[in-house]
């Protein structure tokens, strides 16, 4: 499945000119954000295999992964403001 198609459609609705513009930094940030979200999803998925003793540690790992997502989310927001893309 390629969720990027959906994003492209949403972006084209916002403005056709944005579709043709590519910014390497923006792509890098979005890639990193995607990876961070995947890592978060994996960490949450692992929770069901954690036993009572392992659970707090695994829960903390998931929290850390989520915070990384939040940081990247903010970076993307900042990039949009400073770059206008
Ligand atoms: Zn940019």
* DSSP strand tally: 0
- Taken as a percent bin, the fraction of beta residues is under 5%
Ligand types: zinc ion
The count of domains is 1
Overall average pLDDT: 85
- Helix count equals 4
Low-confidence stretches: 1-10
Distance between the termini: 26 Å
Give the helix/strand class: mainly alpha
Rg, rounded, reads 16 Å
Write the H/E string, N to C: HHHH
Q: What is the general shape?
A: elongated
For the sheet with most strands, the description reads: none
Q: Helicity, in percent?
A: over 70%
Description:
The structure is a single chain. The relative contact order is 0.13. Helix 3 packs antiparallel against helix 4 (55-83). It is built from four helices and no strands. With 85 residues, the protein is mostly helical. Bound molecules: zinc ion.
Give the gist of this structure.
The chain is mainly alpha-helical. It contains 4 helices and no strands. The chain binds zinc ion.
Provide keyphrases for this structure:
85 residues, mainly alpha, 4 helices, elongated, disordered N terminus, binds zinc ion
Give the SSE layout.
Layout: H1 4-14, H2 16-20, H3 24-46, H4 55-83
The structure holds zinc ion.
The site of zinc ion has 6 residues, from helix 3 and helix 4.
């Amino acid at each position: 499945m390629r969720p990027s198609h959906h994003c492209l459609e949403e972006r084209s609705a916002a403005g056709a000119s944005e579709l043709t513009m590519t910014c390497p930094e923006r792509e890098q940030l979005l890639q990193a954000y995607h990876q961070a979200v995947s890592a978060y999803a994996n960490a949450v998925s692992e929770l069901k295999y954690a036993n009572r003793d392992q659970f707090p540690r695994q829960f903390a790992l998931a929290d850390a992964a989520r915070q990384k997502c939040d940081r990247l989310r903010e970076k993307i927001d900042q990039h949009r403001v400073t770059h206008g893309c």
